[in-house]
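I'm stuck. Please check this protein.
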Amino acid sequence: MEKRLYKSRKNRVICGVCGGLGEYLNVDPTIIRLLAVLLGCTSTGIIIYFLAAIIMPEEL
């Protein structure tokens, strides 16, 4: 079975991007969320998060 990157339905706080990325990388989604907050301190990080929220498909 191949791994696919999806927005998570279970580990969702805002859009499910960090939860989906954590599940894909087999890492605790909290760590991904902390990294997203650190990146969110820059305008580039916010743009990347919302682009991922638009581009990543929903989990089936």
User: Anything to note?
Assistant: The chain has three helices and no strands. The first helix runs from residue 17 to 25. Residues 23-54 form one domain.
